User: Fold these one by one.
Assistant:
Number 1:
Amino acid sequence: MSHLYGHFGAEGAGYSQPSALLSSTKLNIPSSLRRKELPALPRLSEPEVVRHYTWLSKRNFGIDTGFYPLGSCTMKHNPRVNEVIAQIPGIADIHPLQPEHHLQGLMSIFFEMQVMLATCAGMDAVTLQPVAGAQGEFTAIRCIQEYHRTIGESQRTKVIVPDSAHGTNPASASMAGYDIIEIPSTVDGRLDLDALSAAVGDDTAAMMITNPNTLGIFEEDIAAAALIVHAAGGQMYYDGANFNAILGKTSPGLMGFDAVHYNLHKTFSQPHGGGGPGSGPIGVKSHLADYLPGPLVGRRVLALNEKSNVSDAWYYNWVEPTKSIGKVQMWHGNSGAVVRSWAFYRRYGNELETMSEHAVLNANYLRHRIMEEAKAAGVSDAFTDGAPADIVKHEFTLSLLPLKESKGVGAMDVAKGLLDHGYMAPTVYFPLVVPECMMIEPTETESKEVLDAFAENFVKVLTEDAKVLHAAPKSTPVGRVDEVHAARNLWLRHEKGRQS
Amino acid sequence: MGLSSIDDLFSDIPEEVRMTATLPLPAPQSEEEILADARRLLGANVPLSERVSFLGAGLYQNFVPSAVFQLVNRGEFLTAYTPYQPEVSQGMLQAMWEYQSMICDLTALPVSNVSVYDASTAAAEAITCAVRVHNRKASQKNTVWVSELLPPEKMSVIHNYCQGSDIILKTLLHTADGHVDLASAQSAAGSCGIYVEQPNCLGILDEGICGLKEIIGADTALIIAVQPTSLGLIEAPGNYGADIVVGEGQPLGSPLTFGGPIYGIFACTDKYLRQMPGRIVGRSIDGEGREAYCLTLSTREQHIRRHRATSNICTNETLIALMGAIHISMLGPEGMRDLAIRNMAACQATKQRLAAIQGITITHGEASHYNEFSITLPSKASEALVYLDQKGIIGGHDLGRWFGSRENELLICATDQTSAADIDALANGLESWLEVIS
């Protein structure tokens, strides 16, 4: 083990700093505000710091390490050129309070991204400000809320979500002050139009749904659902977590949605950094555009005597939407993520749909290969489809309930078994509507060889002895972590002398 | 697979919602072309690193050691998702547990999460958290008092986060010298919380804040927003009664990046632990009793609690918090102190130099300032900024953009990156502007 707090080197360890500008003058600090004791931080030299974090990194699994089929999270390759671009001083060292003429290059990229995202989703206006998918949800729901208040329909206090929805959907709507109505899916994992019809009314503010849904199935009745919600006066909100599956094939706009969020850290390859940063821009139809958090980037034709250092024709300027809900982040959102995603989109350009094609092809191929391998190994009865479907979109679900009942091996055991084969485990126990669920999303950046090998190893795990799987993983830096122990014996920071 | 073409894979999308035309976007580019475009476009921006700059106002340019960038770009950190499988995520989990420890040491509080989005969302989450904890006993139901010295952008975020739970935000007043009005603080007793900044947005370190806990009592949360680079020198809020400490993590570890991605600090006492937002890492053991780390207390979170979660936050700013952790590791206790001294000394040197110029008044000349201070000019600050810009100097932030009554005030920020030559350039620039307008 390497412990940061195991390093207490000589006083003053750490990298050297130049002396202060005013070494001779006494600093003006009121005595009660002067810190009495230095913080009890560790003291490390640079080589110790470098070794510690390098050691830590070797105990962490990323897409760079291996296949990462984490359903719903779209763990695709992160092109390295994006990282190079994000370190250019023209993004790394600029400040949001600089005047417009200092920022024309970035603002032109923002403008291009607003247009591109609106185009792909069939929306009319886009803000790049929300910094994560969940914040995008919250922002869009707030826009809908202010819209309803403005048109005199503040009695709309309920938001409808399917029971297969991401947990952030109800959490975001609830944060905005809405009551949540959860509607059950049909037995085959689809949206239940009868349940929806029964749930809507003049108190309906919005429905939040993702399509393809969290089982990876395209909701064929989506246009009918939009009609039902709209007829009741509600708004349709598209959770963009699964946008990777349909880009260029259909759009939320065509399906009848009024608002959508995009996960730039999913669809557009912003690296997820072990938990963030993300970026969650939202797009809306024109009736909601005035409510977006501002400012947005607009542009005007250059006047005769004007010059711009990025365009022969345009000057980019900030535009404040007239009925804006206000801000959701202090500045302009995660601009670093926007720039990386811009580079990713430029690589595809008008062929973005090939991204979705390959993502969907890979998911269907992997599903097919897993079935094939299972049949050959005689373990087809170890699992069932999470929901019946001839084809899936970018991800699919399996229920390991049969294996659980026959061998006492659950989805978590299989997940831990996969870790021993060098894979990141798929998402488990989500969506909640599938018992012993495993949700698998290969993404478009994996090769046939990787998918073949995963299918073989997946089935190998299914055939392993229950005892082995209950004890898995064995080859990882630590064995199965006791999460109950962690919750019962809370140990949330370095405490000198504490042993357990 | 029994399919004959890619189109078969999309046959489940009904005709009436299918996109028929190619996306009206430009043709694909190669990596070389994208890089060239990026360099051209981003090269047209004006980076603070290439100018004499005194702009801070919530984001601060401090020197970030090279090791931070080298280490954080290791693919195992960069390309991981949230550590849902702890056995193969021990690296990031331990790094975040150590981050929590460092934030606890700096703030003198026992609990920290692994970050929220930024200072503004941290402030908003702290306020809603305080209401959840204190509302039952509060005599001023659903009420939190918020310092009037807040940038409107931050106040706007707070409003958005609070309106859904009908939280009443009352204004905590400041005296003319820029310090918290203790009589106004008196009226906050019995409410769910009080939110103040140390230093405040005018850079003022306020001794009076140390006495606030006594004024408001145990049943009202004292929420302090800090500038984390100050905490090696300036008293930790946990030592003067803070219940929740939030702040902008950016100056520790992260470049400005146009204000995002950055990270919000969130620390608190045990009392708020189960109502706090965001991920928390706990130290535990594996089956063989070996030291191991995992996410804990997840039952507060949206993926379990759904609409009853303490927050909707899922993705946070882990990687940027990791940059902060590496930066703090490089500094150590004395390094944190020295960084604070350098920031404060640069601020004081700038203040002294400008105070000597006829026509410029240091707005709160008697106050103790960290990083930044306001000067009052004979004319609009926006005009001074335009003049300085033409001379290649970014002179600071026009306070009129934040507070209508302060349009003649310029907020000037100095950090460890400010040189004596920079200060001279600013002083000379302001002097020649004063001549022009006189």
Note: The mean pLDDT of chain B is 97.
Number 2:
Amino acid sequence: MGKKLLTIMLALIVVLAGCVQTKSEVSGEKDGGDTKGGGNGKVTIELLGTSAGEDDMNIVRDQLIKNGFDVKLNIQPDYGSFKAQRDAGNFDIALSSWTTVTGNPDYAVRSLFKSDGDNSNIDDSEVDALIDRASTETPEQFIETYKQLEQRIVGEKAYIAPLYISFKAQGVNKNVLNPDTVRLAKSRAIAWETIDFNDASKRDTDALITQQAIGSLTSLDPIKGNDGSINTLNTNMYVRLVNLTDDDHVVSDGSLSYNYAIGEGNEDYYFVLRDDINFAAVADGKAVDTGERVGADDVVFSLNRAKDRDAVPDHRTYSLHESMKDVEIVTDLAELEDAKLSGGAGSVLEALEQGLEADITEIVVDKTAADSSAGKYQVVKVTTNEPFPQVLNYLAHQSAGIVSKKQVESINTYDVAAFDVNKDIPYGDQRTVTEGASYDNHLYASGPYILVKKNDYQADFVKNPAYRVGSEFEPKISNVIVRFIEDADSSLSALRNGEIHLFNGVPETKYELVENDDKLVLQKNDSNAVTYLLFNAADRAVAKSENLRKAVLYSLNQDEFLNYYQGNKKKAYSTVSPLVDTGNELIADPTKVEESLADYQAE
Amino acid sequence: MEEKLHNRHALVLSKEYPQANFTWIISLIISVIFLVNSFSFTTGEMNSLVFAMFIAYLATTFLQLFITRRMKRDLLDTGAIQKKTRRLGYVQLLSLVSGNVFAAAAAFNLINERKTPEYTFAVYMFLTQLFVIAISAMNMFKPYVTDTFLVSMAVLLVITVFHAAVLIAVAKLVRETDAPRSMAMIAVFVLLTAVTGNLFALLLGWSLLLKSISNDHSRILKWHVMWEKITRNSMAVFGLFFIILMLAISVTSRFTFDYDFAVENDYGNILQTPSLAYPFGTDNFGRDVFSRIVFGARISLLVGFASTAIPVVVGGFLGGIAGYYSIRTDNVIMRLLDVLYAIPGILLAIAIIAAFGANTTNLIIALSVGSIPTYARTMRANVLMVSNYDFVDSARALGTSDLSIIFKQVVPNSLAPMIVKSTLTIGGAVIATSSLSYLGLGVEPHIPEWGNILRVGSTYLESHSYLAVFPGLAIILLVLSFNFLGDGLRDALDPRLD
């Protein structure tokens, strides 16, 4: 019996052994040469990123290894330490991302690739020339220029290696909020004033609770910050001359201007200002109307300090506004009558008067004298150094928010050159709104909401009582609470259990959860966020060898990223890709990788 | 009346009866788990494979229940388990097919009336080998296997047949205090098979050598009594079994598993539910979770053992010196260690990792440093006690050097609590390793490590819970095993419990 069993067992084993295929048989069928065979000559690439980008890093690592590289990962826990490592040059490639919040292609390339850009490590005169040329061109013309620029940056020189374009996704609690009132714009930050509850009677009693990841606010002075910690907050606290629509067109809706017009030659830009917004301040934990109107002098003051890098210490946004030469209040109605409209018939005055309640009969310099019903208006003129229509996009950016001349001058009494961060308290310092001994809220908000106080967990906003009262842009909900929740998965849980009503930034792999939840609705839109790999340009081998950079570039397979994100990403070729359809596409090519690597090793 | 009382004692003292009870209860629990998982409440579909497992475990449960009742009746009636009942064990061996190690162990225990530690070793050695083969054989459902798979499987099969033969020989020939001299030859071969990581073979080989060659009866008796105590505690043996199984899998996976399945991304197979090709499913990068867990065992065991061995040696040395020498030496060493002790272990580990970077070596160092003081304290307390014994005094009177006294007389006699403590803390080290990886501070995220796997799983708890359940179970089982083994060792080594 035992013998029989043994024979049967042996027979079974032999049969089974015949069924399985070994690895070398399988790979032998696929391709002759195993690229991983020659282990000694491998090039090691150090990949730097944050732990939030761990998944992308893993995909890049896997693709590089499959193309014969060795990869060393350098994962930093947060953006601060990531930046420190990047500045120290401890990387070959760094996982980076860029969001063009102004919605214009110039911003997508200027600061990143121009030799004097504030985020640039590239020094290439051809790139500079292309960027400058494109900036003066019309949308029809610049497609070709940006196409050439992309080919130069990616295809020819491989300064960056693009990965993908993200979508924007926002989860809304439809049991509480009316989803139709919640906007999801491609570029701009969300506007709170339009959001409304399903039950309008709760507007004054309940708060809109939303979320953001970063709780340490860079600065509530709009020109001193341009990052995720304040973009949404400052957008809702300061009104601008113009706004972007959800698909990135420049309009006057919800802004300080009734209308704007571009003068002939594309160098002069005119804005006719509203007279129904006052600054709000905080007194005893409540928002009060200061009685001070938001006027042309404030606009001139705000834009002048925005373009002047020495206006405040630690100015973060001057490069966005460099194109402006002059900002002035128009004093003479005749100037508007004489100025011709760009690319069309008629005068600037006619363009500015379109849709106004009363025609412009008088131009006033004193803001208190403006009265739109009587035809008395204030008009501001912005002049650019060169013809540059995209300046309007920059004026729609939160850093061009209008602050009170009187209030900011009364707070910023320090000497900019001798500024001492420990002693001097500048306008918008987060210490002044943080609960505790240093609390001394001196904010003057021109926008629909004002920040009352914040702590480590949340920031409390109330509506500006003197913001376009009675109009459709008057803030619907009186109180807004912004919770600081760092982790996207925790935020999603908070949304699902009703703790927050609105979550901007649902992770791609979790769309299904939101869609399957009865009380939630998922809003999706394109975005301008591009993720790419930045090559070290200082002292590593990748900085010196174009061939090595190309070998990395052609190892990347964007289809695999799309697969991983379940199709919730789009292919990218450069940071311009979401804004201009240039037709360029990066196609993974193992033979090009081999050639480039061979060339590199022969160098 | 007296006989009835005597039989009641037999019931209480019986080794088999409590284990039989335990077996049917745990089999029932597992079968209920299978039943619940065989039915999908959302789609209303039945998983026939899981349901078949449920039937198999349920059958085992009923058979075991039947055996248990007969054992009870036998014991109460006659004071001993009858031959007929013992023969039922052979039937229960069939439970091996369903992988029910509890029932199989109980069956082996029932079949053989004469229990020697060698028999237990041989049983578990054989079981370990069977499980290693079963786990490795899962690879046959994969698209391909490694080049060394067939050869190593053949070797493993041959070893298993050999182990089965040894098991029969041991059951027939080995007695409590001696074994036939011929067993020495077999013992050497058994020792050789321990290179597969099956440490039961090491224990069995050593034990057989001792009994067949040595004439030192006290030594044999000491060894026998110690293992007798440990093997009587079936939970400790199951713990040891799982640890050794993990170790054996870690060793053999090098030849039977393909590392590429565990680390290479496969975008065509993202988030697959468990199937024969992917027994634990695939993760968000299309990697096989089963292979990842198998390879992860390596790191968990390596870090667990190394980060316990280092503080045992360093702390033991410092504690030994501190306990033996004067107050001043003692004070200097122990106060310095107190300073170290004041820093929370996991914080210290995080600080070290943050400063020197995340890799396996740093992980081991980071986890080791924090637990040096506790080992030093344990050692010192024992040395203080042992160094007052007469044999130390006599060694001193004979003019033996201090170092020689410490490391030849005092330390060996103070080791028992250290062994127990280290067994119990290996579990802690395994958890600490996984915790650090879970926080993103351990080894690189693509490297299969249980904490890493769990981290990926934790973000898919709702949609793909198996991604978190299986690595979680692996961690729980390994830590639990170390704790049970530690408990068993403490019971066996503590002189107060004699």
Note: DSSP finds 22 helices and no strands in chain B.
